[in-house]
Write a structure and sequence with these properties.
362 residues, Rossmann fold, 2 domains, 8-stranded mixed sheet, 4-stranded parallel sheet, 14 strands
Length: 362
């Protein structure tokens, strides 16, 4: 009888100990401070407003201030301590190199603060992929940097901005998002800023990466599926803190019957590189080869890219003898991303072999 009573007491004490430990764990979790996330606003459709809720394509971008955007998503307070800052209030098609520099320097400064755990940037969809890639190349931090946008203004039926903003803060607040490079979060998907692109202009499902998303946000939690193998952020040889200006680079679009007028104009303007957005595998028509050769002889870098919408992969010395012409193959980067990388690369080197190496690695 005494043995049975002893076993019963030990069982009760064991349960009490388990409950005490569980209670302590719950208390610790409840007392754990929320991460600090700063939201930098630049304008775009996510800050847009239309005359009617039926207007999803006709509206004015960059109208709503960051204070109102944050106020409209009170659930953010359950995820992080969120503060907002209005950096710009512009439609993203109006972004300039100077704007990229200002934004990147602000992001860099914030990333160095011990009281900042993650950064979210609201942006227009038109050039969000360019800004994301620029930050991916030039910001030295392991802290999550997330760009969010929307395809519909907040005044429209089925507006997507509120959820995209919420998901972006979820990712920026998560320790699991550290050291994954700069990300773009849209339509529940977490994309790498390196290879995501806008593929349609009227649907919330507008963005695609040819190599797939990094992960997804599902009911306030990030789930991850792949890592970015290319160099980025802390693994990059480029640093916004050391870049004074960005060399001028422009894109020439390839099509049937194209001539060399644009190439000549950009050379005369003083461009340091020209991205030729060719057909297929960055193909260059015979009549343009001597025009581009002449540009290269004048010190202008020539980068062959492709305007194929999804997965325009350019192979060196295929279609054109890049070694012979001293040209650069744009790898898998679309023309607008190739433009960003060429401009950043030129802050370090004017050697075409070095630039080719950079296109392979980034």
């Amino acid at each position: 009888m005494r043995l049975a009573q002893l076993r019963s007491c030990l069982h009760v004490f064991g349960l009490l100990a388990l409950l005490t430990a569980f209670s302590s764990t719950m208390t610790f979790a409840a007392d754990r401070p929320l991460p600090n996330v700063v939201v930098l606003a630049t304008g775009g459709t996510i800050a847009g407003a239309g005359a009617s809720s039926a207007n999803s394509a006709t509206y004015q971008a960059a109208k709503v201030p960051i204070s109102k955007l944050l106020e409209d998503v009170p659930q953010l307070g359950q995820v992080a301590n969120v503060t907002g800052e209005q950096v710009f209030q512009v439609a993203s098609e109006s972004f300039t190199n100077d704007d990229l520099m200002v934004l990147a320097r602000r992001v860099s400064a914030l990333s160095k603060q011990s009281d900042v755990d993650g950064i979210v940037i609201t942006h227009g969809t038109d050039t969000v992929e360019e800004t994301a890639y620029f930050l991916n190349l030039t910001i030295h931090t392991k802290k999550p940097i997330v760009l969010v946008a929307s395809m519909r203004p907040g005044t429209a039926m089925s507006a997507d901005g509120m959820l995209n903003l919420y998901d972006g803060v979820v990712v920026a607040a998560s320790s699991s998002a550290r050291d994954r490079g700069v990300m773009v979060v849209l339509n529940d998907n977490i994309y790498s800023g390196r290879d995501v692109s806008k593929m349609i202009n009227i649907s919330p499902n507008a963005f695609v990466s040819p190599w797939g998303s990094l992960g997804m946000v599902v009911e306030g939690k990030p789930y991850w599926f792949r890592l970015l193998d290319k160099r980025h952020t802390t693994h990059s040889e480029f640093n916004i803190d050391h870049i004074k200006t960005l060399p001028e680079v422009d894109v020439v679009y390839g099509y049937g019957n194209v001539d060399g007028t644009a190439i000549d104009a950009f050379v005369q303007k003083g461009d340091k590189a020209i991205i030729y957005a060719g057909t297929g595998n960055g193909a260059v028509p015979a009549r343009l080869v001597p025009v581009l050769q002449k540009a290269r002889e004048q010190g202008v870098q020539v980068v062959r890219s492709s305007h194929v919408n999804l997965g325009g992969f350019v192979v060196r010395n295929a279609e054109q003898p890049d070694d012979k012409y001293n040209w650069v193959a744009g790898h898998d980067l679309n023309p607008q991303k190739a433009k960003i990388l060429a401009s950043v690369a030129l802050t370090k080197t004017t050697n075409s072999r070095d630039i080719q190496r950079i296109f392979w690695e980034y």
